[in-house]
Protein backbone atom coordinates (compact mmCIF):
# COMPACT_ATOMS: atom_id res chain seq x y z
CA UNK A 1 0.00 0.00 0.00
CA UNK A 2 2.74 2.48 0.98
CA UNK A 3 4.79 1.77 -2.15
CA UNK A 4 1.88 2.48 -4.51
CA UNK A 5 1.15 5.87 -6.02
CA UNK A 6 -2.42 6.05 -4.69
CA UNK A 7 -1.33 4.85 -1.23
CA UNK A 8 1.29 7.55 -0.93
CA UNK A 9 -1.21 10.16 -2.10
CA UNK A 10 -3.57 8.95 0.62
CA UNK A 11 -0.95 9.25 3.38
CA UNK A 12 0.30 12.64 2.17
CA UNK A 13 -3.24 13.98 1.94
CA UNK A 14 -3.99 12.99 5.53
CA UNK A 15 -0.74 14.58 6.73
CA UNK A 16 -1.26 17.82 4.83
CA UNK A 17 -4.91 18.16 5.91
CA UNK A 18 -3.93 17.57 9.53
CA UNK A 19 -1.20 20.21 9.25
CA UNK A 20 -3.74 22.63 7.82
CA UNK A 21 -6.12 21.85 10.66
CA UNK A 22 -3.37 22.47 13.22
CA UNK A 23 -2.73 25.85 11.68
CA UNK A 24 -6.44 26.55 11.94
CA UNK A 25 -6.67 25.09 15.46
CA UNK A 26 -4.33 27.64 17.10
CA UNK A 27 -6.27 30.79 16.15
CA UNK A 28 -9.56 28.92 16.64
CA UNK A 29 -8.74 28.03 20.25
CA UNK A 30 -7.63 31.62 20.86
CA UNK A 31 -10.91 32.91 19.47
CA UNK A 32 -12.84 30.41 21.60
CA UNK A 33 -11.08 31.68 24.75
CA UNK A 34 -11.87 35.26 23.82
CA UNK A 35 -15.54 34.46 23.25
CA UNK A 36 -15.64 32.50 26.53
CA UNK A 37 -14.27 35.42 28.57
CA UNK A 38 -16.51 37.94 26.81
CA UNK A 39 -19.52 35.77 27.52
CA UNK A 40 -18.61 35.73 31.23
CA UNK A 41 -18.37 39.51 31.18
CA UNK A 42 -21.78 39.70 29.54
CA UNK A 43 -23.31 37.35 32.08
CA UNK A 44 -21.76 39.36 34.89
CA UNK A 45 -23.24 42.55 33.45
CA UNK A 46 -26.68 40.98 33.27
CA UNK A 47 -26.35 39.75 36.84
CA UNK A 48 -25.40 43.29 37.99
CA UNK A 49 -28.60 44.68 36.49
CA UNK A 50 -30.55 43.00 39.30
CA UNK A 51 -28.68 45.12 41.80
CA UNK A 52 -29.29 48.27 39.81
CA UNK A 53 -33.00 47.53 39.90
CA UNK A 54 -32.99 46.91 43.63
CA UNK A 55 -30.20 48.29 45.80
CA UNK A 56 -30.80 45.69 48.43
CA UNK A 57 -30.81 41.97 47.50
CA UNK A 58 -30.34 39.13 49.90
CA UNK A 59 -27.16 37.09 50.06
CA UNK A 60 -28.72 33.96 48.54
CA UNK A 61 -29.82 35.82 45.42
CA UNK A 62 -26.40 37.46 45.07
CA UNK A 63 -24.69 34.09 45.37
CA UNK A 64 -27.00 32.58 42.75
CA UNK A 65 -26.31 35.47 40.36
CA UNK A 66 -22.55 35.04 40.71
CA UNK A 67 -22.82 31.25 40.31
CA UNK A 68 -24.85 31.63 37.12
CA UNK A 69 -22.29 34.09 35.78
CA UNK A 70 -19.45 31.73 36.87
CA UNK A 71 -17.51 34.59 38.47
CA UNK A 72 -16.50 35.59 42.03
CA UNK A 73 -17.31 39.30 41.86
CA UNK A 74 -18.41 41.98 39.45
CA UNK A 75 -17.09 45.55 39.32
CA UNK A 76 -18.89 48.05 37.15
CA UNK A 77 -17.53 51.49 36.37
CA UNK A 78 -20.23 54.00 35.57
CA UNK A 79 -19.85 57.81 35.49
CA UNK A 80 -16.21 57.64 36.60
CA UNK A 81 -17.30 55.74 39.69
CA UNK A 82 -15.93 52.22 40.21
CA UNK A 83 -18.58 50.21 42.02
CA UNK A 84 -18.46 46.66 43.33
CA UNK A 85 -21.77 45.33 42.18
CA UNK A 86 -21.63 41.67 43.28
CA UNK A 87 -19.04 39.95 45.38
CA UNK A 88 -18.15 36.66 47.04
CA UNK A 89 -15.05 35.30 48.75
CA UNK A 90 -12.06 34.78 46.38
CA UNK A 91 -10.29 31.49 47.22
CA UNK A 92 -6.85 32.52 45.94
CA UNK A 93 -4.98 35.68 45.05
CA UNK A 94 -5.45 37.02 41.52
CA UNK A 95 -2.64 35.60 39.36
CA UNK A 96 -3.19 37.60 36.17
CA UNK A 97 -5.31 40.33 34.61
CA UNK A 98 -6.54 40.20 31.01
CA UNK A 99 -7.94 43.23 29.23
CA UNK A 100 -10.41 42.10 26.55
CA UNK A 101 -10.86 45.57 25.08
CA UNK A 102 -9.39 45.12 21.57
CA UNK A 103 -6.42 42.93 22.47
CA UNK A 104 -3.91 42.15 19.62
CA UNK A 105 -4.26 38.75 17.94
CA UNK A 106 -0.75 37.69 18.86
CA UNK A 107 -1.49 38.32 22.53
CA UNK A 108 -4.74 36.36 22.35
CA UNK A 109 -2.96 33.34 20.77
CA UNK A 110 -0.13 33.48 23.33
CA UNK A 111 -2.51 33.69 26.32
CA UNK A 112 -4.68 30.89 24.92
CA UNK A 113 -1.72 28.49 24.47
CA UNK A 114 -0.42 29.26 27.94
CA UNK A 115 -3.89 28.75 29.42
CA UNK A 116 -4.25 25.42 27.61
CA UNK A 117 -0.92 24.13 28.91
CA UNK A 118 -1.39 25.36 32.49
CA UNK A 119 -3.06 22.58 34.48
CA UNK A 120 -3.26 24.55 37.76
CA UNK A 121 -6.57 26.22 38.71
CA UNK A 122 -5.90 29.95 39.14
CA UNK A 123 -7.93 33.11 39.79
CA UNK A 124 -7.75 35.78 37.10
CA UNK A 125 -9.19 39.23 36.56
CA UNK A 126 -10.90 39.95 33.24
CA UNK A 127 -11.62 43.49 32.09
CA UNK A 128 -13.93 44.41 29.26
CA UNK A 129 -16.35 46.95 27.85
CA UNK A 130 -20.00 46.67 28.97
CA UNK A 131 -22.58 45.65 26.39
CA UNK A 132 -24.55 48.48 24.75
CA UNK A 133 -22.27 51.05 26.43
CA UNK A 134 -23.89 50.45 29.82
CA UNK A 135 -20.85 51.86 31.58
CA UNK A 136 -17.19 52.56 31.03
CA UNK A 137 -15.86 49.12 31.88
CA UNK A 138 -16.69 45.94 33.66
CA UNK A 139 -14.35 43.57 35.38
CA UNK A 140 -14.81 40.17 36.92
CA UNK A 141 -12.72 37.67 38.80
CA UNK A 142 -13.00 34.00 37.93
CA UNK A 143 -11.14 30.70 38.11
CA UNK A 144 -9.36 29.17 35.11
CA UNK A 145 -10.41 25.53 35.60
CA UNK A 146 -13.74 25.94 33.82
CA UNK A 147 -12.10 27.94 31.07
CA UNK A 148 -9.42 25.30 30.49
CA UNK A 149 -11.91 22.41 30.49
CA UNK A 150 -14.08 24.25 27.96
CA UNK A 151 -11.03 24.91 25.79
CA UNK A 152 -10.01 21.22 25.95
CA UNK A 153 -13.51 20.11 25.03
CA UNK A 154 -13.57 22.52 22.11
CA UNK A 155 -10.09 21.41 21.01
CA UNK A 156 -11.03 17.73 21.05
CA UNK A 157 -14.10 18.42 18.95
CA UNK A 158 -11.99 20.41 16.51
CA UNK A 159 -9.44 17.60 16.24
CA UNK A 160 -12.12 14.95 15.74
CA UNK A 161 -13.75 17.06 13.07
CA UNK A 162 -10.33 17.59 11.46
CA UNK A 163 -9.71 13.85 11.44
CA UNK A 164 -13.06 13.21 9.79
CA UNK A 165 -12.43 15.91 7.21
CA UNK A 166 -8.94 14.50 6.59
CA UNK A 167 -10.27 10.99 6.12
CA UNK A 168 -13.06 12.04 3.76
CA UNK A 169 -10.74 14.31 1.79
CA UNK A 170 -8.06 11.63 1.56
CA UNK A 171 -10.60 9.03 0.42
CA UNK A 172 -12.01 11.33 -2.24
CA UNK A 173 -8.50 12.19 -3.41
CA UNK A 174 -7.63 8.48 -3.41
CA UNK A 175 -10.59 7.77 -5.70
CA UNK A 176 -9.72 10.74 -7.90
CA UNK A 177 -6.07 9.72 -8.18
CA UNK A 178 -7.11 6.15 -9.00
CA UNK A 179 -9.38 7.35 -11.80
CA UNK A 180 -7.26 10.21 -13.15
CA UNK A 181 -3.69 8.94 -12.72
CA UNK A 182 -3.27 5.38 -11.47
CA UNK A 183 -5.70 3.70 -13.86
CA UNK A 184 -4.24 5.37 -17.00
CA UNK A 185 -0.69 4.63 -15.80
CA UNK A 186 -1.58 0.96 -15.24
CA UNK A 187 -3.07 0.93 -18.72
CA UNK A 188 0.20 2.24 -20.16
CA UNK A 189 2.13 -0.41 -18.20
CA UNK A 190 -0.16 -3.16 -19.52
CA UNK A 191 0.38 -1.94 -23.08
CA UNK A 192 4.14 -1.96 -22.55
CA UNK A 193 4.10 -5.49 -21.09
CA UNK A 194 1.86 -6.75 -23.89
CA UNK A 195 4.05 -5.11 -26.52
CA UNK A 196 7.20 -6.57 -24.98
CA UNK A 197 5.78 -10.08 -25.40
CA UNK A 198 5.28 -9.64 -29.17
CA UNK A 199 6.80 -6.37 -30.51
CA UNK A 200 6.17 -7.43 -34.09
CA UNK A 201 2.38 -7.49 -33.51
CA UNK A 202 1.02 -4.08 -34.54
CA UNK A 203 -2.19 -4.72 -32.58
CA UNK A 204 -0.25 -4.36 -29.34
CA UNK A 205 0.77 -0.76 -30.06
CA UNK A 206 -0.81 1.64 -27.57
CA UNK A 207 -3.70 3.88 -28.60
CA UNK A 208 -3.62 7.20 -26.63
CA UNK A 209 -6.82 7.68 -24.60
CA UNK A 210 -5.73 9.64 -21.51
CA UNK A 211 -7.51 12.91 -20.77
CA UNK A 212 -4.65 14.31 -18.69
CA UNK A 213 -2.33 16.23 -20.99
CA UNK A 214 0.92 14.93 -19.50
CA UNK A 215 -0.24 11.30 -19.61
CA UNK A 216 -1.49 11.69 -23.16
CA UNK A 217 1.87 13.12 -24.21
CA UNK A 218 3.54 10.08 -22.63
CA UNK A 219 1.14 7.72 -24.45
CA UNK A 220 1.75 9.50 -27.77
CA UNK A 221 5.51 9.31 -27.26
CA UNK A 222 5.21 5.59 -26.45
CA UNK A 223 3.02 5.04 -29.50
CA UNK A 224 5.60 6.71 -31.74
CA UNK A 225 8.39 4.65 -30.20
CA UNK A 226 6.48 1.37 -30.56
CA UNK A 227 5.48 2.15 -34.15
CA UNK A 228 9.05 2.95 -35.16
CA UNK A 229 10.40 -0.09 -33.31
CA UNK A 230 7.86 -2.44 -34.90
CA UNK A 231 8.66 -1.09 -38.35
CA UNK A 232 12.38 -1.44 -37.66
CA UNK A 233 11.96 -5.02 -36.42
CA UNK A 234 9.93 -5.96 -39.47
CA UNK A 235 12.52 -4.39 -41.76
CA UNK A 236 15.36 -6.23 -40.01
CA UNK A 237 13.40 -9.47 -40.12
CA UNK A 238 12.80 -9.07 -43.86
CA UNK A 239 16.47 -8.27 -44.42
CA UNK A 240 17.51 -11.28 -42.34
CA UNK A 241 15.14 -13.54 -44.26
CA UNK A 242 16.34 -12.09 -47.55
CA UNK A 243 19.96 -12.57 -46.52
CA UNK A 244 19.28 -16.12 -45.37
CA UNK A 245 17.42 -16.92 -48.55
CA UNK A 246 20.25 -15.53 -50.67
CA UNK A 247 22.75 -17.59 -48.66
CA UNK A 248 20.78 -20.79 -49.24
CA UNK A 249 20.23 -20.12 -52.90
CA UNK A 250 23.90 -19.28 -53.30
CA UNK A 251 24.95 -22.45 -51.53
CA UNK A 252 22.90 -24.73 -53.73
CA UNK A 253 23.52 -22.68 -56.86
CA UNK A 254 27.24 -22.94 -56.25
CA UNK A 255 26.95 -26.72 -56.22
CA UNK A 256 24.97 -26.69 -59.46
CA UNK A 257 27.50 -24.40 -61.12
CA UNK A 258 30.33 -26.60 -59.92
CA UNK A 259 28.72 -29.51 -61.71
CA UNK A 260 28.35 -27.32 -64.80
CA UNK A 261 32.08 -26.62 -64.67
CA UNK A 262 32.72 -30.33 -65.06
CA UNK A 263 30.68 -30.43 -68.23
CA UNK A 264 32.51 -27.42 -69.68
CA UNK A 265 35.79 -29.26 -69.17
CA UNK A 266 34.54 -31.88 -71.60
CA UNK A 267 33.25 -29.21 -74.01
CA UNK A 268 36.78 -27.80 -74.26
CA UNK A 269 37.91 -31.11 -75.80
CA UNK A 270 35.59 -30.62 -78.77
CA UNK A 271 37.18 -30.29 -82.23
CA UNK A 272 34.65 -27.67 -83.27
CA UNK A 273 36.57 -24.37 -83.58
CA UNK A 274 33.58 -22.30 -82.47
CA UNK A 275 33.06 -24.45 -79.41
CA UNK A 276 36.77 -24.30 -78.55
CA UNK A 277 36.67 -20.52 -78.86
CA UNK A 278 33.56 -20.00 -76.73
CA UNK A 279 34.26 -22.66 -74.10
CA UNK A 280 36.84 -20.60 -72.13
CA UNK A 281 34.38 -17.72 -71.93
CA UNK A 282 31.71 -20.06 -70.64
CA UNK A 283 34.14 -21.47 -68.06
CA UNK A 284 35.09 -17.97 -66.92
CA UNK A 285 31.46 -16.94 -66.60
CA UNK A 286 30.62 -19.99 -64.54
CA UNK A 287 33.70 -19.44 -62.37
CA UNK A 288 32.64 -15.86 -61.68
CA UNK A 289 29.15 -17.08 -60.81
CA UNK A 290 30.59 -19.61 -58.37
CA UNK A 291 32.70 -16.89 -56.73
CA UNK A 292 29.67 -14.64 -56.50
CA UNK A 293 27.66 -17.40 -54.80
CA UNK A 294 30.42 -18.01 -52.30
CA UNK A 295 30.67 -14.30 -51.47
CA UNK A 296 26.97 -14.17 -50.61
CA UNK A 297 27.20 -17.04 -48.12
CA UNK A 298 27.86 -14.47 -45.36
CA UNK A 299 24.12 -13.74 -45.23
CA UNK A 300 21.96 -15.31 -42.52
CA UNK A 301 19.56 -18.18 -42.93
CA UNK A 302 15.81 -17.89 -43.48
CA UNK A 303 12.91 -20.29 -43.05
CA UNK A 304 12.35 -22.64 -45.98
CA UNK A 305 8.88 -22.71 -47.53
CA UNK A 306 6.74 -25.70 -46.48
CA UNK A 307 7.55 -28.82 -48.51
CA UNK A 308 5.21 -29.88 -51.29
CA UNK A 309 4.69 -33.51 -50.29
CA UNK A 310 4.21 -36.14 -52.93
CA UNK A 311 5.21 -39.73 -53.60
CA UNK A 312 8.88 -39.96 -54.67
CA UNK A 313 10.59 -43.03 -56.11
CA UNK A 314 13.67 -43.00 -53.90
CA UNK A 315 15.87 -45.14 -56.18
CA UNK A 316 15.55 -42.70 -59.09
CA UNK A 317 16.30 -39.70 -56.86
CA UNK A 318 19.38 -41.33 -55.32
CA UNK A 319 20.58 -42.33 -58.78
CA UNK A 320 20.45 -38.68 -59.91
CA UNK A 321 22.50 -37.64 -56.89
CA UNK A 322 25.13 -40.33 -57.50
CA UNK A 323 25.44 -39.50 -61.21
CA UNK A 324 26.16 -35.86 -60.39
CA UNK A 325 28.76 -36.79 -57.79
CA UNK A 326 30.50 -39.30 -60.08
CA UNK A 327 31.19 -36.44 -62.48
CA UNK A 328 32.73 -34.43 -59.65
CA UNK A 329 34.97 -37.33 -58.58
CA UNK A 330 36.73 -37.67 -61.91
CA UNK A 331 39.63 -40.10 -61.74
CA UNK A 332 39.79 -40.19 -57.95
CA UNK A 333 39.42 -43.66 -56.40
CA UNK A 334 35.97 -43.17 -54.82
CA UNK A 335 33.16 -45.65 -55.34
CA UNK A 336 29.43 -45.28 -54.76
CA UNK A 337 27.00 -47.95 -53.57
CA UNK A 338 23.20 -47.80 -53.75
CA UNK A 339 21.05 -50.12 -51.67
CA UNK A 340 17.52 -48.89 -52.28
CA UNK A 341 14.67 -51.46 -52.35
CA UNK A 342 13.02 -51.61 -55.77
CA UNK A 343 9.74 -49.74 -55.88
CA UNK A 344 10.32 -47.96 -52.55
CA UNK A 345 8.54 -44.64 -52.57
CA UNK A 346 8.58 -42.06 -49.78
CA UNK A 347 6.34 -39.13 -49.05
CA UNK A 348 8.50 -36.03 -49.48
CA UNK A 349 9.23 -32.94 -51.50
CA UNK A 350 11.42 -34.33 -54.31
CA UNK A 351 13.45 -31.16 -54.76
CA UNK A 352 14.12 -30.70 -51.05
CA UNK A 353 14.95 -34.37 -50.49
CA UNK A 354 17.36 -34.25 -53.43
CA UNK A 355 19.10 -31.26 -51.83
CA UNK A 356 19.38 -33.07 -48.48
CA UNK A 357 20.90 -36.26 -49.88
CA UNK A 358 23.09 -34.29 -52.29
CA UNK A 359 24.48 -32.18 -49.45
CA UNK A 360 25.28 -35.27 -47.36
CA UNK A 361 26.96 -37.09 -50.26
CA UNK A 362 28.87 -33.98 -51.36
CA UNK A 363 30.16 -33.37 -47.82
CA UNK A 364 31.35 -36.98 -47.63
CA UNK A 365 32.99 -36.78 -51.08
CA UNK A 366 34.81 -33.52 -50.26
CA UNK A 367 36.08 -34.90 -46.95
CA UNK A 368 37.34 -38.08 -48.63
CA UNK A 369 39.01 -36.28 -51.56
CA UNK A 370 40.81 -34.02 -49.07
CA UNK A 371 42.49 -37.10 -47.51
CA UNK A 372 43.65 -38.53 -50.85
CA UNK A 373 42.69 -42.03 -49.69
CA UNK A 374 40.39 -44.42 -51.56
CA UNK A 375 36.97 -44.79 -49.95
CA UNK A 376 33.33 -45.58 -50.54
CA UNK A 377 30.04 -43.75 -50.10
CA UNK A 378 26.97 -45.94 -49.61
CA UNK A 379 23.34 -44.82 -49.69
CA UNK A 380 20.77 -47.22 -48.28
CA UNK A 381 17.12 -47.10 -47.27
CA UNK A 382 14.64 -49.16 -45.32
CA UNK A 383 10.98 -48.93 -44.45
CA UNK A 384 9.43 -49.36 -40.99
CA UNK A 385 5.84 -49.30 -39.85
CA UNK A 386 5.84 -45.62 -38.98
CA UNK A 387 8.74 -44.10 -40.94
CA UNK A 388 11.28 -44.35 -43.76
CA UNK A 389 15.00 -44.34 -42.95
CA UNK A 390 17.71 -43.23 -45.36
CA UNK A 391 21.39 -43.68 -44.48
CA UNK A 392 24.38 -41.98 -46.09
CA UNK A 393 27.51 -43.82 -44.95
CA UNK A 394 31.13 -43.28 -45.95
CA UNK A 395 34.48 -44.80 -45.10
CA UNK A 396 36.17 -41.44 -44.83
CA UNK A 397 38.18 -39.84 -42.02
CA UNK A 398 35.24 -39.00 -39.73
CA UNK A 399 34.20 -35.64 -38.36
CA UNK A 400 36.57 -33.56 -36.23
CA UNK A 401 35.40 -32.76 -32.67
CA UNK A 402 34.89 -29.07 -33.45
CA UNK A 403 32.55 -29.91 -36.32
CA UNK A 404 30.58 -32.30 -34.12
CA UNK A 405 29.96 -29.57 -31.50
CA UNK A 406 28.22 -27.27 -33.98
CA UNK A 407 27.18 -29.81 -36.59
CA UNK A 408 23.85 -28.27 -37.57
CA UNK A 409 24.64 -24.63 -36.66
CA UNK A 410 24.88 -22.24 -39.63
CA UNK A 411 28.34 -20.80 -40.29
CA UNK A 412 29.83 -22.83 -37.43
CA UNK A 413 29.49 -26.47 -38.50
CA UNK A 414 31.82 -26.31 -41.48
CA UNK A 415 33.89 -29.45 -41.92
CA UNK A 416 36.37 -28.49 -44.62
CA UNK A 417 38.50 -25.36 -44.73
CA UNK A 418 36.60 -22.48 -46.34
CA UNK A 419 33.24 -24.20 -45.90
CA UNK A 420 30.29 -22.13 -44.71
CA UNK A 421 28.65 -24.79 -42.59
CA UNK A 422 25.34 -24.14 -44.31
CA UNK A 423 25.00 -27.56 -45.98
CA UNK A 424 24.08 -29.56 -42.89
CA UNK A 425 22.07 -26.67 -41.39
CA UNK A 426 19.97 -26.42 -44.55
CA UNK A 427 19.56 -30.18 -44.73
CA UNK A 428 18.46 -30.41 -41.10
CA UNK A 429 15.93 -27.64 -41.60
CA UNK A 430 14.52 -29.26 -44.74
CA UNK A 431 14.09 -32.59 -42.97
CA UNK A 432 12.39 -30.88 -40.01
CA UNK A 433 9.99 -29.34 -42.51
CA UNK A 434 8.95 -32.90 -43.37
CA UNK A 435 8.38 -33.64 -39.68
CA UNK A 436 11.48 -35.80 -39.62
CA UNK A 437 14.99 -35.71 -38.20
CA UNK A 438 18.54 -35.69 -39.52
CA UNK A 439 20.97 -37.25 -37.05
CA UNK A 440 24.61 -38.22 -36.92
CA UNK A 441 24.50 -41.94 -36.11
CA UNK A 442 28.23 -42.47 -35.84
CA UNK A 443 31.59 -41.01 -36.84
CA UNK A 444 35.18 -42.05 -36.32
CA UNK A 445 38.25 -43.39 -38.05
CA UNK A 446 36.20 -45.98 -39.93
CA UNK A 447 33.83 -43.41 -41.40
CA UNK A 448 30.67 -41.42 -40.82
CA UNK A 449 26.97 -42.25 -41.04
CA UNK A 450 24.06 -39.80 -41.23
CA UNK A 451 20.47 -41.02 -40.96
CA UNK A 452 17.36 -39.32 -42.36
CA UNK A 453 14.06 -40.27 -40.70
CA UNK A 454 10.85 -39.34 -42.55
CA UNK A 455 7.64 -40.14 -40.64
CA UNK A 456 4.81 -41.73 -42.57
CA UNK A 457 1.94 -40.05 -40.78
CA UNK A 458 -1.40 -40.12 -42.57
CA UNK A 459 -0.79 -41.46 -46.09
CA UNK A 460 -4.40 -42.10 -46.94
CA UNK A 461 -4.30 -39.50 -49.67
CA UNK A 462 -1.44 -41.17 -51.53
UniProtKB/TrEMBL annotation:
SUPFAM superfamilies reported in the protein's UniProt record: ATPase domain of HSP90 chaperone/DNA topoisomerase II/histidine kinase, Homodimeric domain of signal transducing histidine kinase
Segments forming a coiled coil: 215-242
Top-level enzyme category: transferase
Pfam family, one: HisKA
Annotated EC: 2.7.13.3
Recorded catalytic activity of this chain's protein: ATP + protein L-histidine = ADP + protein N-phospho-L-histidine
Gene3D superfamilies noted in UniProt: 1.10.287.130, Histidine kinase-like ATPase, C-terminal domain
GO MF assignments: ATP binding; phosphorelay sensor kinase activity
Organism: Shimia haliotis
The protein, known as: histidine kinase
Keywords: ATP-binding, Coiled coil, Kinase, Membrane, Nucleotide-binding, Phosphoprotein, Transferase, Transmembrane, Transmembrane helix, Two-component regulatory system
Signal sequence interval, chain numbering: none
Domain Histidine kinase: 248-458
Highest taxon, organism lineage: Bacteria
Transmembrane segments: 6-30, 154-182
